[in-house]
C-alpha cells in the first residue's frame, strides 16, 4: 500500500492546459482560413464560389508573391529617354562618390546610371544569392549596401541599369576551364593581349549562369540589365583559339550570338534588357569577326546600345582623317544607319507571322557616347554634339562612358 501510494504521489498530474491549447489552436486555424475567405471574397468580382482548402492555400501563396514583388522598389515611372552616366562598382560602393553623382544628375537634368555588377574580372560586386557564383568564389563585394543604394537612387527618381560583362570572364574560365576558349598550342586556357580569358560563347551551360545573375539583379531592384562583351574575342592571337563547343563549319558566329540573344529574351520575359554592340555594327553588314549583326539583336532586346565613340573609328571613316575630331558627323551617320536598318527590320517583321508565339521586343536605339579624351579633348561641346546627333538620327536616350567616372567637366550645360 505504501509503494502504491508513493507511485501515485510521484506521477505527474495531467496538464490541464493541454485541452485549452488545442481549442485555441483550432479556433486560430479557423480564424486564419476565415480571413483568407474574406480576402478572396473581397477581391472576387466575378461572384466565384468559395474556394476549397487547397485553393485557399494556393491563393495565399500568390498573394504573398505579389507582396514580395511590390517590395522590390523598382522605379515605378521609368523615363522614356534614359540620360545616363556609367559607374564602376567601386564608385557605386562609395557614399561620397554617389552623393557627388546624384548632385550632378539632379543639377544637370540627367535621370539614370549604369552600374557594373559583373565586370571584366568576372566578380559579382554585391552579396548575391546565386548559388553558382558563391560556389565559384566569384563574389567580391565592392557595393556593400546594394539594397540601400538602389532605394536611395529610386527615391531620387533615378533609373538604375545593371551592367553585366558576359563572355570575357577570367574567373569562371579558371573555375570551369572545360567551358573556356582553349589555346591550341599550349592546351591551356586562351588569353587575349591583356591576359584575360574568355568563355566559349557556344557553351550553353554558361548562358544559364548569366540568366541567374540577371534574375538576381532584377530581384534586388535594378530596373534594367545591360550586357557587354556579348561577342567573340576581338584582340589577342586569334589564330591560337580553339573551341570545345563552337564549330564555325556548322554554325557561323553571328548565329551563335543570335541564339544567345533569343535565350536571354525568352528566359527574362518580364525584365528590361539591353545589349552593347560595336559602333561599326551600325554600318557594317557582316559580323565584324565577332558575331555581332545588329539585326540579330533587334527582336530580343528593349534597347540596342551601339558604342559609337568617334575615337574608335578608323582614320578615313566617312572621309575624316581623325574621326574623333568630328563627333557630330560620326554619331549622326552611325545612328542614322542603325535607325534605317531598324525600320527595314520592323517592316519585314510585320509581314511575318510569329508562329512560335515568342516574346517580341520593340527595340530602340540608345547609344553609348564618348565622354573621355582620345583622339581629341572631349569636354562639354563635343559631348553635346554627340547627343544632338543621336536625337536627330532616331536615338532614344543615351549613356556616357568614362572609365574613371570623371564627368563634372563634361556634362555641364547638357539641357536635352
Description:
The longest helix is centred in the first third of the chain and has 27 residues, at 17-43. The strands form two sheets. A nine-stranded parallel beta sheet has the order 9-8-7-5-3-2-1-11-10. Helix 2 (17-43) crosses helix 3 (53-70) and helix 12 (327-350) runs parallel beside helix 13. By secondary structure, it is an alpha/beta fold. It contains 13 helices and eleven strands. The model is unreliable at 1-53 and 59-71 (pLDDT under 50). The chain has two domains: 19-43 and 53-60; 83-401, Alpha-Beta Barrel (TIM Barrel).
List keywords for this structure.
12% strand; TIM Barrel; nine-stranded parallel β-sheet; single chain; two-stranded antiparallel sheet; alpha/beta; 2 domains; 416 residues
Give a short summary of the structure.
It contains 13 helices and eleven strands. It is an alpha/beta fold. It has two domains: 33 residues; 319 residues, Glycosidases (TIM Barrel, Alpha-Beta Barrel), CATH 3.20.20.80.
